[in-house]
């Protein structure tokens, strides 16, 4: 793609990210909604404030990532599409937020849990198995078609995904243990879902193929189930 076209795409994506930032900049209402969705039925004001900080850490980076990722992809000689860039932006935004969250704000109320945190405590076994199976299928599809550059991108996506999950595991506790746990679980499961979806979109060939679309549909369905708390889990 000519460089001026890449710059135009980057500017459009940057404006799109800025619009998302303005429209979805979280407040107390969104903080409460996130906590209740992930199992905290009656969050305290401090819990809501922590949830708002949690959301803002992620969304602040969207405009800059939407602006910069198309340029980086072009410099690396990697083709891209809107879906892949959108998912990559969300995933990298989550990574930056988790890195920043490793050092909690001064004066934050901390409450240490007695249980030892682990990946399986944040992402259920079915989610880990689903992730492994679908990502492996997408990787095989890329190898069969010898799309080596995309295979490298898929490996990078998996590395970022697991880094986000591991950072969510070791993130220092802040606030009430229930709220802290809910946000921690959300971080890991949303990252797993985004990583899964970003990987399978790479398996879409230039010519429509039933096999690749099967992988993509399965990956997007798994993304939805990972990134949402089911009724069974809520019960």
Task: Write structural notes for this entry.
This protein has 235 residues and is mainly alpha-helical. The protein contains eleven helices and no strands. It has helices spanning 3-23, 28-37, 45-59, 62-75, 82-101, 119-122, 125-144, 148-170, 177-201, 210-226, 231-234. α1 packs antiparallel against α4. The longest helix is centred in the C-terminal third of the chain and has 25 residues, at 177-201. Residues 110-114 have low confidence and may be disordered.
User: H/E element string?
Assistant: HHHHHHHHHHH
**How confident overall, as mean pLDDT?**
79
Shape descriptor reads globular
Report the major sheet.
none
Beta strand count: 0
Detail the poorly predicted runs.
110-114
- Helical proportion, percent range: over 70%
N- to C-terminal separation?
51 Å
Element layout with pairings:
Elements: H1 3-23, H2 28-37, H3 45-59, H4 62-75, H5 82-101, H6 119-122, H7 125-144, H8 148-170, H9 177-201, H10 210-226, H11 231-234
Helix pairs in contact: 1-4, 2-3, 3-5, 4-5, 5-8, 5-9, 7-9, 7-10, 8-9, 9-10
Task: Explain briefly what this protein structure is.
This protein has 235 residues and is mostly helical. It is built from eleven helices and no strands.
Structural descriptors:
235 residues; mainly alpha; 11 helices; globular
């Amino acid at each position: 793609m000519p460089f001026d076209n890449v710059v135009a795409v980057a500017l459009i994506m940057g404006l799109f990210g800025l619009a998302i930032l303005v429209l979805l900049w979280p407040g107390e209402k969104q903080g409460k909604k996130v906590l209740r969705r992930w199992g905290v039925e009656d969050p305290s004001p401090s819990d809501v404030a922590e949830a708002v900080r949690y959301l803002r850490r992620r969304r602040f980076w969207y405009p800059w990532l939407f602006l910069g990722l198309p340029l980086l992809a072009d410099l690396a000689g990697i083709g891209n599409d809107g879906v892949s860039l959108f998912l990559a932006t969300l995933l990298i935004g989550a990574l930056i937020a988790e890195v920043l969250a490793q050092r909690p704000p001064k004066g934050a109320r901390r409450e240490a849990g007695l249980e030892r945190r682990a990946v399986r405590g944040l992402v259920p076994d079915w989610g880990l198995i689903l992730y492994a199976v679908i990502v492996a299928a997408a990787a095989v599809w890329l190898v069969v078609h010898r799309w080596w550059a995309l295979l490298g991108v898929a490996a990078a996506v998996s590395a970022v995904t697991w880094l986000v999950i591991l950072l969510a595991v070791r993130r220092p506790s802040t606030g009430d243990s229930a709220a802290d746990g809910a946000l921690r679980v959300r971080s890991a499961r949303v990252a797993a879902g985004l990583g899964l979806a970003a990987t399978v979109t790479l398996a879409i060939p230039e010519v429509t193929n039933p096999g690749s679309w099967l992988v993509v549909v399965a990956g997007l369905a798994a993304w939805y189930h990972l990134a949402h708390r089911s009724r069974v889990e809520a019960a």
